[in-house]
């Protein structure tokens, strides 16, 4: 944990990771903070966490610093659970064999009565061991629980949220569209992402199969998205113009690794970020 003064004045060798909990107000502060790692030919990682409302500032820092960020969404609950499960599996492997006779009878009874395979039963045991009894979905776009981000494409350019809504009306009841949130057009203009309640995902995917030239799929990683203006909503207007849902774009540059909302690879010819952050 360091102040801006420390970031400017201290030269500590072999700093491998920098985490900024929010974007700094000015580019110079970002340069000094992230510059504490990846020094003297070494490699390092600079992470910058931010809420969607700070997206404009992050883009400004990226542009003015010459660092190319890679924008990555927050880990999904499944990602966190898998990581915890890996640690639990390693811990189980280290348990002494002396416990097996004590628990063998209960294990055999559970296996016989569950009607499940040994692998599935062990998977549930691992989940319980790390505190999971179910896995909730979470939006990649807004991080809302029990919401899922979908990508719609129509084979033609998408210019506004209104076009997305009119396309959805072709195969979804209009009253269901009140649950659509955060329509954001992709950077290449060929599609749009939006959030829906997780329980309705299959309805959208199946419904799109009955609409010509329309595809809807669940997003595993956000595509690069068009930047929303800082003081305005999307051109779709209404509740769909809420900047709260602006998503992070993506991209890789050569050289450094700097993060904007996730892992990022900073680059930039000739400046001191032309190394791996």
Automatic annotation (TrEMBL):
It comes from the Eukaryota. Residues 222-277 are annotated as: Disordered. GO terms for cellular component: nucleus. It is an enzyme of class 3 (hydrolase). GO terms for molecular function: ATP binding; hydrolase activity; RNA binding; RNA helicase activity. Belongs to the DEAD box helicase family. DDX21/DDX50 subfamily. This is DEAD-box ATP-dependent RNA helicase 7. Keywords: ATP-binding, Helicase, Hydrolase, Nucleotide-binding, Nucleus, RNA-binding. It is found in: Nucleus. The keyword Repeat does not apply. Residues 1-81 form the Helicase C-terminal domain. It catalyses: ATP + H2O = ADP + phosphate + H(+). Residues 233-271 have a biased composition (Gly residues). CDD domains: GUCT_RH7_like (cd12937), SF2_C_DEAD (cd18787). Pfam families: DD_DDX21-DDX50, GUCT, Helicase_C. Its EC number is 3.6.4.13.
